[in-house]
Amino acid sequence: MSTRQQAAIAIRGLTVQAGDKRIMGPVDLDVAEGEHVLLVGPSGSGKSTLLRAIAGLEAPAAGEVHLFGRTVSVAGGASVAPQDREVGLLFQGGALWPHMTVLQTLLFVLKRRGVTGAEATARAHELLELVDLTGIDGQKAPTLSGGEAQRLSLARALASEPRILLLDEPLGPLDAPRRAALLDQLSGLGTRLGLTVLHVTHDPGEAERVASRTVSISDEGTLSAASR
Q1: CB-CB contact of 109 with 159 (8 Å)
Q2: Quick check: 31 and 37 in contact, CB under 8 A?
């Protein structure tokens, strides 16, 4: 990592456990501001767990997580709430709310940030335009195609105005043409919005052309040296 760039993500000795069973770690990782880093590894190696720990959805059994120089998680200590970390998380399959329309999905997130009324509606439409989903405001999640659902999930993640975007195999449920289209969109948005991206995948070939570098995580849940 260049010394000229601020570390958007700095992880030191991070371990996550379920009871007495270690799920992941210990992990040390630095991601520079503006980087798009691929995290690859076999199923069960802890890739998703690492993202969840960065987002504040998993508590560390050991180690620390720092975002933009701010300590957000310390094992046995205080933790910054997920909504206060400036992190967006895009899951595989989207995990959309089936009872909400496309517009309601974004308005819900914006309302939690204190954005309401006409301002929220305008911002929601801006986000839909950003991900090429204009004209389907009233549709509900079960009626969307796979590509539309993932783009709505992306818009929902961006509605919180994150500085860091965590992608948990977001291309998995899509066919090849849709994977390519969404990948190009993710890459373009990351650059346009100045996002730092940590991208989990089991298939590095699908996304390595847009990444700054690739980091591998082993079956034991530890990271190997990064390759550029």
Answers
A1: yes
A2: yes
Q: How many residues does the chain have?
A: 228
Tell me which residue has tokens 């309401």. 116
The CA distances from residue 136 to 10, 12, 132, 228, in Å, are 39, 44, 10, 40
Report how far residue 25's alpha carbon sits from residue 46's, in angstroms, rounded to the nearest whole number. Answer: 8
CA within 13 Å, CB half, 117 = 2
Convert the pLDDT of each residue in 70-105 to its tens digit: 999 999 998 999 989 999 988 776 678 899 999 999
Rounded distance, CA 5 to CA 142, Å? Answer: 42
Helix, strand, coil shares, percent, the chain, to 5: 35, 30, 40
User: Where do the H-state alpha helices sit in 28-101?
Assistant: 47-55
How many CB atoms lie under 10 A from the CB of residue 116? 11
Q: Are 9 and 29 in contact (CB under 8 A)?
A: yes
Residue linked to tokens 């309302």: 111
Q: For residue 42, is the peptide bond before it cis, meaning its omega torsion is within 30 degrees of 0?
A: no
> Per-10-residue mean pLDDT for the chain, 228 residues long?
66 91 90 91 87 95 96 93 92 79 94 92 92 89 86 88 89 70 75 88 70 80 58
Alpha-carbon torsion angle 33, 174, 141, 191, nearest 10:
20
CA distance 42 to 192: 31
